[in-house]
Fold each of these.
Amino acid sequence: MTATPLTATGEFLARLEESKCCAAIVSDEQLELAMASRTPIVFVLRGNGLTLGPSIQRIHATGKLAAVHLDLVDGVRADPRGVAWLARLGADAIITSHGRLMPVVRKEGAIAILRLLLSRRTHLDTALTAVSRAGPDIIEVLPGVILPSLGALMPKLGVPLLAGGFIRTEADAEDVIAAGATGITTSAPNLWGMYAGA
Amino acid sequence: MQAHERLPRPALPRVLIADGGGAPIRVPLMLRAGLLLRDIDIAAVIGRVASFEGVAVIDLDSVRGMASDEAAADFAIDTLGVRIVMTRRAHVAAHVGSRGGLGLLHAFAFDSTGLTRALDGSPPLPGVGTVVSPGAVLPHMRPSELEQLARPIVAYGLLVRVADALDCLELAECVVLRQDVAAELATTARRSTQPVRNLLTTVAGEE
């Protein structure tokens, strides 16, 4: 197994700047579509985390970065060993809702993305504390499509923000970016690579 | 069979005001809203139910001091007279439905994949509806996704604007609002045309 050179947050963000809409994939078919698209980063949300190495290598071979969701892939526990495993497979970024794992992800040389699930207004109130405590490189907020409706209620978190969840149209994507998202993760292939070369 | 099990299944109001047991909730007359008792102590639940004349709904998973099991649901129905119970546990929602009440299965909708997974294991059951959290995603769901949701549907969470609440009322039978948003909705309705006022009195899907 060959560990791929790890990517700095700056490069990750620069890729996002190139094309803000990234592929979030849950199947092999979507992986093929994502690799053929202009998405700069592929977010892997399903699959067997123990055998993801070849998929990550294929993603890298197309010049894209790979972000893997620790909590959603099968076979890997959301603990420091699980983080180390995914980093060893070459994941450029690791996403998890477990704030305590952020320092572990960074120590393993990957970009630490904290996933914040918002379903109540109290979650907005506690988000800042959660982010301050965890110290992620990037946060991903779900469901991202409601970001524009939150307006000033959404606290300034001081780190780049990805938005994912129910973002399906160009209008959704534009509204979410206008609301302050640095980038978007979406399973809608029609949006992958949107803004590329703009 | 207890007397209340022979009653018609309880109906949801179009608006529930979230009540965490703090200062008493003032329900705008225009809305005829009920209360959603959530993030609240068991003793406060009892006090609220005793003093409130409208429809009360209990979020079983968030009542401090209560388990979220069938015994707690039975307590809500038999002792408190609360026949609409929200829970994340499908078997508890089904139990409430089987007792003649309305069980509301709480489903989280952070993205389409997660929503599909959440609903896969929940076949429609008599007397069981769906709570979608956050409710604000409802207008962003596809018709095919909405069709998967057992009715009645309650939109719960992050409805911070009146416009979003009205959008949800077009699709769902009920919305959960904070008191300030509910008051704003009542003001809007008073100043609005009949179609908006109709949204607050007509159940979604009815002519």
Note: The first strand of chain A starts at residue 21 and ends at 25.
Amino acid sequence: MKDRFGGNQRRARFQALCQSLRPDLLRFAFWLSRDRALAEDVVQASMLRAWKAQDSLLDEAAAKPWFLTIIRREFARTFERKRLPCVDIDELIKSEEPSLAAAEENDLAELRAAIFKLPDEYREPLVLQVLMGYSTAEIARELNLSGPAVLTRLFRARSQLRTLCGEDLPDARNSRDAK
Amino acid sequence: MIDHDAYRRALLADPRDDSAELVEHREACAECSAYRERLLRFESRLQRALTLDMSNLQRARRPRLALAASLLLALVVAGAVWLAAPRAGLAAAVIEHVVDEPQSWSSQAPVADAALAGVLHDARMHLRAGAGEVSYASSCEFRGHVVPHLVVQSASGPVTVMVLVHEHTAAQVEFDERGYRGVIVPIAGHGSIALLMRSSEANMQDVEGVAARVRRAIVWEP
């Protein structure tokens, strides 16, 4: 009886954890995949894996990075299982338009479309930094990169975004890549 | 001291980097200081652009990946991980109710004690001092029961509080849907309370603070 109660409690805590993190996890998966349906599939499969591996989560405070790592791996598995077709970015943006441009957020639609156009290797660290609040060291650990490599990708990501959005005309000073 | 190029490269990599060498350059260079201001404004837009409205995102189209394994596991999950459904349904119902009472957000004057006591009496409860300033109080029909619908003012704006004696939930659940962020908090033996703010001004610390104050202030009547 005690075990059953303990199990129920643990399950309830895990469910609550999943529920509270789900919006952020979906956002992360969406920006990773640029596809709502795929993001939902990946998050769902990731939560199942997380459920099975919940004993490995020793600290609830570390739950978000733990989930994000599972999602990244699940996303990679999805690519291994099935070669996803190459897509035309403009078509992709058009197809995801309801997500990208809610009525009250028209001013952000252009920026979201620009984020869509970023190469994966720039978009992912940017999302981890801006949306998930990761430090450079945490991004480096998650993506298995060096700190300077992360900074270079972040620099390039923002440079490209600002150019795409007409924020900064590329000039000698700010278009030069970090080495 | 680092040069302009190095400063801007570092800033584009991490606009919130406040390391000593960046601060030193910024304080000595008006042009780069102005550049930082522009970049921080852009950063704010970037943050908002990435924070998609989940109610749009969750309205999924037909899944493209019909993974058999996923479906099988989904059955397992129906009783486990994906148990969010009943609580998500409760959150959706609370939001639906709040959407139908837009006037609740706009009143700012404190509700008269007698009016508040009348609303709370319907739920066989009263509030001690300390719950915060209640600017709206109404006895509302919710899922077949009459419940107190309050709005409590917080530092970041009004927080809707619904005392749901008949709605039981096992654990605290946060939600973020349709432009509202909030939390459903279980109350042992007395159902739950739902608290939410409009996403545009939502500060979950304030919501949690109001939740704690209201919980402490509630006195259940026999």
Note: Chain B touches chain A through 54 residues (CB under 8 Å).
